[in-house]
Amino acid sequence: MWKQYRRTVEILQALLITGLPFLRINGQSALRFDIGELRLYVFGTVIWIREFYLLLAAILFMLLFITFVTAIFGRIWCGWLCPQTVLLDLSESLAGRIGPKNGKTARNLLLFPLSAMVSLTMIWYFVPPLETMKALFTSVPITAFFLVLWVLVYLELAFLGRKFCMSVCPYAMMQNALFDKDTLVIEYDQSRDDTCMKCDSCVQVCPVGIDIKQGLSTRCIACAECIDACRAKSEPRGLPPFPNYKGRIMRAKTFWMGGITAAAGILLTLIMVLRPPVDFLITRDQEPLPQGLNRYSWTVYNNSGRALDLELSATPDVTVIGEHTFRLKPFEAVRGKVLLKASGTVRNVRFTLSGNGISIRKDAGFL
Ligand code: SF4
Ligand code: SF4
Fold it and tell me: Does the Cβ of 172 fall within 6 Å of ligand 2?
């Protein structure tokens, strides 16, 4: 029973991760970090490298979310969602269909194309899929990166596999510290030990080689395979499976931790959504110029997915010299300089960036 649910979740997760780079919103990938431009595209908006605080806020939210999920649902990530588990499960499941004989060889062969797909998918989160496919045959760095990643992913999956979960994975080590007595775990019912058949079906199916009858183990990835294996043996005897989920989901901690996590998620979304469509920065250049002349450097960031026609103007007591009307493509940053010439004594100037219903004012000094 759990196996079918898990397989469905795993397939959906694999489709989501592989398909997300193909989803385009406002002309850009739904989720992609552009290394060349140092900007992150997130579901129709953009985070510039100068807005690093937003990335930190997103990381903090993820930490809160992981803490909440782990404290309440235990190692649900490991057994149901971790890409490592998903890939190993899917390759083992496919290898099982080919035949139980030479299962490991078949699995390792299947992991070869799967690792290539993983490597490609990872690159798609940095370079759009179509560009990646073209670059694979024309760009040495992309081809080299793909091949190195492919080999590393393959070696990790084929030769480290579940050992990674038990020995290397930092998340696996951290999450046990987040457990409490009510966290959802898979536990053997010791009170019914005298009726257990000791058939060891639960041990044979365990992907990490645990004997759940010996008690809770930090190596358990909560995959629920032992429950299904035991159910097949115990149900004909009219008994529930001996290993089973144990814990309490509906409790005070769920509500206060869930509330804090939800509030942080809403706050982060509001910060992202309520950002102005354009950011405008302007500073006076420190350079010696004749009296009455000042030069300014400006940068305009288009946070929106639409092209904008904008004009930079200043207070009437100065004349703007230089390019001051421009078109900003979606998610584009434009930099430029303008020279201001004052006819009389001016101490401060007010710049206005306007167009497409946008009007932003900035003050700057004048010498
Ligand atoms: S599969 Fe069930 S009945 Fe068999 S040893 Fe494991 S717990 Fe006991
Ligand atoms: S003990 Fe059961 S739930 Fe834990 S890893 Fe083994 S089969 Fe999965």
Answer: no
This prediction's pTM: 0.82
Domain end, chosen from 127, 150, 184, is at 184
Residue nearest to atom 6 of ligand 2 (CA): 206
Query: Please, are residues 27 and 305 in contact by the beta-carbon 8 Å criterion?
Result: yes
Does residue 60 lie within any of the structural domains? yes
- Give the separation between CA 30 and CA 33, rounded to whole angstroms: 10
Helix (H) or strand (E) holding 184: none
Q: In this structure, which residue's CA is closest to atom 7 in ligand 1?
A: 242
Same domain, 44 and 148: yes
Q: Answer with the one of 127, 153, 184 that is the final residue of a domain.
A: 184
Work out how many domains the chain is built from and give that number.
2
Whether residue 310 sits in one domain with residue 171: no
Question: Would you state the pLDDT for residue 265?
Answer: 95
197: Cβ below 6 Å to ligand 1?
A: yes
Query: Which among 258, 264, 238 has a CA at the least distance from the CA of 73?
Result: 258
Task: Give residue 356's region: left, alpha or beta (phi > 0; psi -120 to 50).
Answer: left
C-alpha 230/C-alpha 170 separation (Å) is: 30
| Domain CATH number, residue 355 | 2.60.40.10
187 contacts: CB under 8 Å, gap ≥ 6: 212, 215, 216, 243, 244, 246
Q: Are residues 57 and 169 in the same domain?
A: yes
Domain presence at residue 178: yes
Side-chain-facing half-sphere of 12: CA atoms under 13 Å: 8
Domain residues for the domain of 171 are 2-184
Distance 249 CA to ligand 1 centre (A): 26
Query: Do residues 6 and 131 both lie within one domain?
Result: yes
DSSP string, 8-63: HHHHHHHHHHHHGGG-EETTEESEEEETTTTEEEETTEEEEGGGHHHHHHHHHHHH
- pLDDT above 70 covers a percentage of the chain that reads 98
Region of 266 please: left (phi>0), alpha (psi -120 to 50) or beta.
Answer: alpha
Residue given tokens 């989920």 in the structure block: 245
What digits encode the pLDDT tens for the residues 100-128? Answer: 666 778 888 888 899 999 999 999 999 99
